[in-house]
Amino acid sequence: MEVICLFDGPVKGPYVYIIQYKEYVYIGETQGHPVKRFSDHLSNKTNFSPRLKYFEDEWELGSVRFYSIYVGGIVSSLVKRYSSKSITQAVEHTFHCYFSEKPSLCGGRFYILSDTEKTAPRKFYAWGEIEDYVSRIIPELKKYIV
User: Fold this and answer.
1) Which DSSP helix (H) or strand (E) runs through 87?
2) Which of 23, 63, 74, 104 has a 20 to 30 Å separation from 56 between CA atoms?
3) CA-CA distance, 2 to 74, in Å (whole number)?
4) What pLDDT was estimated at residue 5?
């Protein structure tokens, strides 16, 4: 069966994106359009492909799923206090927390290939707003994640 994919959204971000292969997920953020990041991750330029190869010797490109979430709304509400990058990184970090700490809300248990240890924002005090935002997105995302 042929698959038709639609990538819709502003050319300029901010976006949080998720790449999924079977039970493996990679969560990232970008200030541009995620299609560029998707292509980077399918090469050895970034972490997704090498980390996935550690667990799966042979993986088919057709089995990889890409999700993107335009996060401009939450960014515009907080941009007077924090940079767009910091806000997007906070959203990315919160998605990591949901996938690792609340997997049933995300559709199951996943192995997370990415991390936010070095990129989660410091001196950021709007975690409650970010948590509320992500908690509203998770049920919609769950409809698509297999």
Assistant:
1) helix 84-101
2) 104
3) 35
4) 67
